[in-house]
Amino acid sequence: MEEIVCSVIVPMYNEEDVIAETYSRLTRVMENFGESYEIIFINDGSKDRTREMLLEICKADTRVKLIDFARNFGHQVAITAGMDYAAGQCMVIIDGDLQDPPELIPDMVRLWREGNDVVYGKRISRQGETFFKKMTAKVFYRLLNKLTDVDIPVDTGDFRLIDRRVCEALKQLPERSRYVRGLMSWVGFKQVAIEFERNERFAGQTKYPFKKMLKLAMDGIMSFSYKPLKISSYLGTILSFFSFLYFIFVLLQKIFFPHTTQSGWASLIAVSLFFNGIILLMLGIIGEYIGRIYDEARGRPLYIISELKNMEDREGPRYKINKTR
User: What is the tally of structural domains in the chain?
Assistant: First the structure.
């Protein structure tokens, strides 16, 4: 069997509009580069014709592999499955929407051959994205670096190349709330950036609306930092201190100015609601961490596979395959 140099991992969710172009550009790039390769598509529970189209490509080209999930398990889990089944000496993770240019892969491989274990794409511009998305992303990456002890490069996504030994290290991290780009920074190894301009989507709509972006941000912060818990403790201590001072003030006022008219039910209710809101916020942060502990304790597999194509002889490290054809 020919040794595979590069495995290209492409998570897909409802991407029927871009599949043909994605396959065409990836194949053209890899063929011209001249390295042995495979392309692993992960169908993350798509509801359109993504699965059928990928199966047709697999029939025509055995270098294309398919991991078909039993349902939607999420983008980060799809990337993890691709790494679990990849056979290459190095792996390139790229989204199927062609915002990240496949033409950059040969340069990534060259940097890898120079001795770098991780080559991550760093965006110098983001075309076709709203001002709100650009600003929230900018704030999030910098906030994450302030909250964590792990140096996670700013303005980067999941578009990157990793060495086989980095992949093997990541397989030892079984957590469910996955923030893959953070995990890659956590494991270390020699890492280098390659800059590029991010394009607009080739076609279709983004599969990362605000709700999913918010969840990813929560996964990033809570997977790599317990500072929100410390902030809750500090905030509770400060509020308790000022509440005590206010109690002393009211007590002294009662002793030395007993005839002072006490009024202001509206302000009293406002203060009460404020403190109750802070308490609920702190309980919510604690509950989020407890919920993640509960998820980990159940020990369920990260994903379930319905079908493998052109890679039926490979066995993933996490569970038994539900069904193969």
Answer: 2
SS3 145: helix
Query: Strand 191-198 relative to strand 118-126: parallel, antiparallel, unpaired?
Result: parallel
In this predicted model, what pLDDT tens digit does every residue of 238-271 receive, in sequence order? 766 676 676 676 667 667 666 655 555 555 666 6
Q: In this model, does residue 10 exceed pLDDT 90?
A: yes
Residue 80 lies in a domain: yes
- The distance from CA 196 to its chain's CA centroid, rounded to whole angstroms, is 20
Give domain status of residue 62, yes or no. yes
Q: Residues 207, 13: contact at Cβ < 8 Å?
A: yes
Nearest Cα neighbor of 157 from 128, 171, 132, 137 is: 137
Which ranges of the chain would DSSP assign to H, the alpha helix?
A: 19-33, 50-60, 75-85, 105-113, 131-147, 164-170, 180-187, 210-224, 227-256, 265-298
* Predicted local distance difference test score (pLDDT) of residue 280: 73
Spatial strand order of the sheet with 64-69 comes to: 191-198, 118-126, 156-163, 90-93, 6-12, 37-43, 64-69, 305-309
Are 211 and 243 in a shared domain? no
194 neighbors 155 (Cβ within 8 angstroms): no
**314 in a domain, yes or no?**
no
Q: Is the pLDDT of residue 278 over 80?
A: no
- Within a domain: 322: no
139 has a pLDDT exceeding 90: no
* Amino acid present at 321: I
The values of phi and psi at residue 66, to 5°, are -130, 130
* Coil, helix or strand at residue 91: strand
Q: Who contacts 166 (Cβ-Cβ below 8 Å, separation ≥6)?
A: 117, 118, 184, 187, 189
- Least Cα distance to 1 among 63, 55, 56, 58 occurs for 63
